[in-house]
Amino acid sequence: MHIFKSITALLGTSVLVGALPQKQQTPIVRKEWRTLSKHEKSSYICAVKCILRKPALTPAFDNTGVLSRYDDLIYTHIQQTFSIHYTGHFLAWHRYYLAIYERMLREECGYKGAQPYWDWTLDTPAGNWASSPVFDPVTGFGGNGEFIQGDPNNPFEVPGRTGGGCVQDGPFAGIQDMVHLGPADSVTYNPQCLKRDFSPYFAGRYLGMNQTQLTLAAPDFGSFDRVVEGGPSFEASGLHGGGHYGVGGTYGQIGDLYVSLADPIFYLHHANLDRVWWSWQKLNLTARLTDISGPIFLMDYDNLQGGNVTLDFPLSVGVSAADVTIGDVMNIAGCGTNGALCYEYDQVYTLQG
Ligand SMILES: [Cu+2]
């Protein structure tokens, strides 16, 4: 975070695309992937490919793996990994981050639509997982990686994993240097294919409507966030881990906490997490537009290292946009008057009684 502050000071404000993600007055509407037309799907994927090729704004360093605008975002996520997960601002940070990605696709790559979301409840139970339209080789993001034998004695093996190698089909198959960064926090150039390691079992267990309802039923933001994020172990997962490990398993990039966004499906998964948060907010909107809590520091739920975040807590996404506060992103349809964001969802989840 601090490194970007000094870079911004060095380069002046010209590298910033603007303080707010969208300047339009009417919210753009995010829709579910499978409801997009064929043309909308291909123009989204085309814009993703454009961002993957656009030169990075992050100043180059020795052996840099930060080559593209797409990498700019991965880099800032790597830098902040331990300060934006298992904290009170986890959802707010990722909400802002996603809006910046959406803006990059629109303003830098000519994409006309809104960021699509992936309602994974539609692809459960486990038996439906691999045939999700999101994984379609022609109208989606391609499917699983080829099967790689794992290590059954490794406690970090994701239960039910079925792949682990390079993706075999779809728009990102066969690209030897699709991913430049990682594994984990490595930022030196390391060309890799995109890997996936589906766990239909994991997805079925943590991404169904039962888990979504359990999440929506949380009485306050603090408990809501903890149900979404779950605990650090596989058994304690929530919706967040369900998507990461259901697609990424042990060996796929999206299962790697640092470089998870190297898989473009990350953005559809997180859009749906954001939609779950917005659905929860809408159950009692007036109160929940300002309901924020949870620790400033990683897993510091008892506040032994610091306090809880508040609405004026700053969020930084590095070179791609100016800092905002949590308060700026509480309303997704603020449109400049009530915050930094200006989008809506075509549908939200409701709490089933
Ligand atoms: Cu993250």
Automatic annotation (TrEMBL):
Signal peptide: 1-19
Key word Ribonucleoprotein present: no
Keyword ATP-binding: no
InterPro entries: Di-copper_centre_dom_sf (IPR008922), Tyrosinase/Hemocyanin (IPR050316), Tyrosinase_Cu-bd (IPR002227)
Entry's Gene Ontology molecular function annotations: metal ion binding; oxidoreductase activity
Residues covered by the Tyrosinase copper-binding domain: 85-102, 263-274
A Pfam entry, by short name: Tyrosinase
Annotated keywords: Metal-binding, Oxidoreductase, Signal
Name under which the protein is recorded: Tyrosinase copper-binding domain-containing protein
Species assigned in the record: Chaetomidium leptoderma
